[in-house]
Amino acid sequence: MKKVLFVCHGNICRSTMAEFVMKDMVAKAGLTEEILVESKACRTDEIGSDTHPGTKRVLTAHGISFTPRQARQIRRSDYEEYDLIIAMDDENMCDLSRLTGGDPQGKCHLLLEYAGESREVADPWYTGNFEVTYADVAKGCRFLLDKIKPMR
């Protein structure tokens, strides 16, 4: 089973959005037994909080189901547990580099790298634009799924 972990600053907006978008794509592709998707925070600001209301609104608008959850923080042990750790921005990548000792196994990547772009996914906590974030997350997840789905 391929294990994918999405991370962002607080695990209530971007990484949570990516988790639910990717789970929806994985389910529609019939790959729920082959790809595990979760999300966590790089920082402790929002630990224990549920998904941001703006994220819930945009997911609902796009027909993506979600469940109540609590933000959790990434731990060093997660580096061994997951095959890929997908970050939303450069600050997340710095946090991951510190946590993993420089990402020796090359597991950490920015989400939009998979779409051939070298830019960050904007944080709607600051921008207020959850729709723009959704578009980037959906694009990145589509390309990521194409990259990791097993050949049948």
UniProtKB/TrEMBL annotation:
Gene3D superfamilies: 3.40.50.2300. The active site is at C8 (nucleophile), R14, D123 (proton donor). One of its GO terms (molecular function) is protein tyrosine phosphatase activity. It is an enzyme of class 3 (hydrolase). InterPro entries: LMW_PTPase, Ptyr_pPase, Ptyr_pPase_sf, Tyr_phospatase_low_mol_wt. CDD domains: LMWPTP. It holds the Pfam family LMWPc. Its EC number is 3.1.3.48. Keywords: Hydrolase, Protein phosphatase. It catalyses: O-phospho-L-tyrosyl-[protein] + H2O = L-tyrosyl-[protein] + phosphate. Residues 2-147 form the Phosphotyrosine protein phosphatase I domain. Transmembrane segments: none annotated. It comes from the Bacteria. Coiled coil: none annotated. PANTHER family: LOW MOLECULAR WEIGHT PHOSPHOTYROSINE PROTEIN PHOSPHATASE, LOW MOLECULAR WEIGHT PROTEIN TYROSINE PHOSPHATASE. Belongs to the low molecular weight phosphotyrosine protein phosphatase family. This is protein-tyrosine-phosphatase.
